[in-house]
Amino acid sequence: MSFDDILLNIISRIDGERYKHAAFHLMKGKRSGQTLQDTEYYRLHPFFGMLPSLHANDFDLAYRRLLAAGLIAEKEDGTVFLSASGKTRAASQGPVRLNGWSYRGMERLFFARLALAVQTVSHLSAGDKSFMPVTADPVVQRDVKRLFSTVLKGKKPGDLAWEMRSSLEAAGMEDDRLSRFAARLTGKGMSGMTWYQLSEVTGISEMDLKVEWVETLHIWLDSLAKRPTPILAALAKGVKAESPLTGSAKKTAEMYRAGLGMDDIAKQRNLKMSTIEDHFVEIAINDPAFPIRDFAAPEDVKAVRDQAARLATRKLSVLKKAFPGLAYFQLRLILARIGKEEGADGYDDHGKPGKPAEKGHRI
Amino acid sequence: MDTTITENLGSLLKRVTGFDEFRRGQEEVIRSVIQGRDTIAVLPTGAGKSLCYQLPVHALGGTVLIVSPLLSLMEDQVAQLKMKGEKRVAALNSFLAPKERAEVLANLGRYRFLFTSPEMLVQPHISKRLKQLRIAYIVADEAHCISQWGFDFRPDYLRMREWLAALEDRPPVLALTATASEKAIRDIADYLLMRQPELFIHTPDRPNIAMELVRLAGREEKTEWILKNLLRWQGPGIIYVQSRKRAEELAGHLRNREIHAAAFHAGMEGEDRILVQQQFLNGELEWICATNAFGMGINKPDIRWIIHDHLPSSAAQYIQEIGRAGRDGGQSLSTLLYSEGDADTAAFIATDDLPEPETVHFIGKCLAEGMDIREAGELAGLSETALRVISYWLDRLGTAQAAIQMDRLAKAKREEIQSMVQFAEGAGCIRSRALGLFGYSPTFRPAHCCSECGLDPAQILTVRTTARNTAGLQGWRERINSLFGVSAEE
């Protein structure tokens, strides 16, 4: 799927309720309460963090292309929605094969390790022990080095070649796509192509090539998880996010579970209250056993839910008008729980401390 | 004493590197370091500077602490040492993950070579650990970057002085650079608190690089000249350009003519920059059209031709860049394409990173009002480098003096460009005049000296023989197989 089509797909999900920035932050994988909340409400998980180093300029260009093509338009308040032709185009799109939520940019680590392992095996098998590594990252270098004393020890070059071929075969991707993917790999006497060069050879824009590359990695990693092979599994180790929480939110969750209040956590961690609030929204989104009763009365929760359903909106400003007595933070928490299975939010199910989140999404 | 060291040095060299003989200039520097003297060594590019800091530790034991101002350069040197089979080497820099850094810090004593950046050096917990180390000697690499008069001034490098000053029993310091003016050498000795340093200064002359100066009317004529000549003669070579846009433009023109070329500039992704270097080293690319982001740490011995599409902003930069040709000792060529308008662009680029005195006053005022320096810098629209420069001088001199300092630096830069303009517009042996900018003169006149001494480039360039085809996209199975050198059936 092209970058423009992906942007259109995202906009089709936030239709009329968010500004363009929401899509930008989503693709970059911004770990703010707002973006995480959006991801959950609008089911944007596939796109989360798909392009961590996306430039605002490139994004704006694509956005303006969609505007100019009449596929999207902006309301007076600046929120973006799909036009009739935009809806037709979005409906005709194939399935989304990205899995950003699971990998969060870490697919790049897998590729960096793979590229260095391939380069190293390629040079060693040609009897060349000194070469300039394709990645300058010492962490990646050490990861790969470790593999040569463990899983790669005693392996023949053909073994890695075989694993790559059969695993890619099994992942069910088009040959053209895989040829573009393989063109980025470097070996003895054959360097990988830069995005610019690949774009010249294929006639596909650099941006679309990068999107395809991320998608290819996600498809491959998903498939690899089901049919692991020894070397590739070692290269993919730790790439999939184990906990849906960001590191900092995880710490807040632990402290809360240990009995500290929000004020105490903010003080002890020397963080702003708004940051702690973001953490709680993140926890509310991801932890099926989140005790919302600690933060809002059951009747308020129900009233907000009903109102949100009646107005078919998840816009905070609209709901705040309807419930002036509730704080923004409370509204965000309540919204975070919408769509969670009934009974899983701490009312009927009286907490199972320490138990891993079973009903969370794509953990 | 001296004779024993001399004898030992020969066998030390043999034992560590397998070489029988030192290259010119290396031995004196190594001896001075082993004798525990502060040492400044100015050796031309390609003279084997790294051996000067790599060898003495094998005689002295302990750890060498190498302070390097450029992260990329540091990574490169670590990689090269590892390539030679040295295992006791590590880099302590901001690339490291916290866990990795802790690991390196916990094992400091294990390393023979420890690379670090000036910023790391002054961090209290790191500084403390380093002080417990048995440091054989300290190396300041690319030491010209410490001088405010150098074209590559890195304010962070000045922090090394503070660190050295705080050491109770300071090990000897070795400063290494390829190019340094007299002023810069004074700065180096001063900032590194050297005590009567031994100076080993070698002429930056590279007799195997012929020098050509071509005067043209403007940019279009330059493009024409480049295309005409590169279609006729072969590289590999580097074209140094002034802007990213020009790099892309020229590379595009060359590719349209079936010449394998690529642009290289700081706007590219890190991975792509490595790929371009890789392709150049491999011979898959013949020409690189690069901004000055390319070159430091590039170790391609057979570069035959360096072309400057613009006037370098200082003599030191010019000499450093042409010095990347002919490291294998083979006959090479450097060409400077000059047009009258070049001086203005050069001045603009060179002083672009240098804040105006008014800006210094503005930032000083913002800080006095309690604003964060980053915020103030953003308000003033300063680049990151400019902000670093300002921040350093404000800290040390206060607003008024810092503003004067900016003026002084801008003036010095303009003077350097002016002397480059005089060089490009003047007459007489180019080699003599280029070296004269540093106060040297050529040791001898090589057969292929310069375009003023009757150089005929046709005698040293190789005629282009084959028009190469651009490779298409390989099938993925085929590519994987050839990466591993296996046939399809395996």
UniProtKB/TrEMBL annotation, chain A:
<feature type="domain" description="Helicase Helix-turn-helix">
    <location>
        <begin position="248"/>
        <end position="335"/>
    </location>
</feature>
<protein>
    <submittedName>
        <fullName>Uncharacterized protein YpbB</fullName>
    </submittedName>
</protein>
<dbReference type="Pfam" id="PF14493">
    <property type="entry name" value="HTH_40"/>
</dbReference>
<feature type="region of interest" description="Disordered">
    <location>
        <begin position="344"/>
        <end position="363"/>
    </location>
</feature>
<dbReference type="InterPro" id="IPR029491">
    <property type="entry name" value="Helicase_HTH"/>
</dbReference>
TrEMBL record, chain B:
<keyword id="KW-0378">Hydrolase</keyword>
<dbReference type="InterPro" id="IPR014001">
    <property type="entry name" value="Helicase_ATP-bd"/>
</dbReference>
<keyword id="KW-0067">ATP-binding</keyword>
<dbReference type="Pfam" id="PF00270">
    <property type="entry name" value="DEAD"/>
</dbReference>
<feature type="domain" description="Helicase C-terminal">
    <location>
        <begin position="226"/>
        <end position="379"/>
    </location>
</feature>
<feature type="domain" description="Helicase ATP-binding">
    <location>
        <begin position="30"/>
        <end position="198"/>
    </location>
</feature>
<dbReference type="GO" id="GO:0030894">
    <property type="term" value="C:replisome"/>
</dbReference>
<dbReference type="InterPro" id="IPR027417">
    <property type="entry name" value="P-loop_NTPase"/>
</dbReference>
<dbReference type="InterPro" id="IPR004589">
    <property type="entry name" value="DNA_helicase_ATP-dep_RecQ"/>
</dbReference>
<dbReference type="GO" id="GO:0043138">
    <property type="term" value="F:3'-5' DNA helicase activity"/>
</dbReference>
<dbReference type="InterPro" id="IPR001650">
    <property type="entry name" value="Helicase_C-like"/>
</dbReference>
<dbReference type="GO" id="GO:0005524">
    <property type="term" value="F:ATP binding"/>
</dbReference>
<dbReference type="GO" id="GO:0016787">
    <property type="term" value="F:hydrolase activity"/>
</dbReference>
<dbReference type="GO" id="GO:0006310">
    <property type="term" value="P:DNA recombination"/>
</dbReference>
<dbReference type="GO" id="GO:0003676">
    <property type="term" value="F:nucleic acid binding"/>
</dbReference>
<dbReference type="GO" id="GO:0006281">
    <property type="term" value="P:DNA repair"/>
</dbReference>
<dbReference type="InterPro" id="IPR011545">
    <property type="entry name" value="DEAD/DEAH_box_helicase_dom"/>
</dbReference>
<dbReference type="Pfam" id="PF00271">
    <property type="entry name" value="Helicase_C"/>
</dbReference>
<dbReference type="GO" id="GO:0005737">
    <property type="term" value="C:cytoplasm"/>
</dbReference>
<keyword id="KW-0347">Helicase</keyword>
<protein>
    <submittedName>
        <fullName>ATP-dependent DNA helicase RecQ</fullName>
    </submittedName>
</protein>
<dbReference type="GO" id="GO:0043590">
    <property type="term" value="C:bacterial nucleoid"/>
</dbReference>
